[in-house]
Amino acid sequence: MELLRNLFEGYPNLWGGGVAHSVLILSLVIALGITLSKIKIAGVSLGVTWILFVGIVFGHFNLNLDEHLLHFLKEFGLILFVYSIGLQVGPGFFSAFKKGGFTLNMLAVTATVLSVGITIILHFVTDTPMTTMVGILSGAVTNTPGLGAAQQANSDLTGIDAPEIAMGYAVAYPIGVVGVILTLLALKYLLKVDTHKEETDAEKGAGHLQELTVRPVTLEIKNEAVNGKTIKEIRPLVNRNFVISRIHYHEGEQDAELVNSNTVLHLHDNILIISNPADIEAISAFFGKQVEMEWEQLNKNLISRRILITKPKLNGKTLSQLRIRNNFGASITRVNRSGIDLVASPSLQLQMGDRVTVVGSELAVSHAEKVLGNSMKRLNHPNLIPIFLGIALGCILGSIPFMFPGIPQPVKLGLAGGPLIVSILISRFGPQYKIITYTTMSANLMIREIGISLFLACVGLGAGKGFIETIINQGGYVWIGYGAIITIVPLLLTGLIGRYVCKLNYYTLIGVLSGANTNPPALAYSNDLTSCDAPAVGYATVYPLAMFLRVLTAQILILSLS
Question: Do residue 359 and residue 218 come from a single domain?
Answer without folding.
Answer: yes
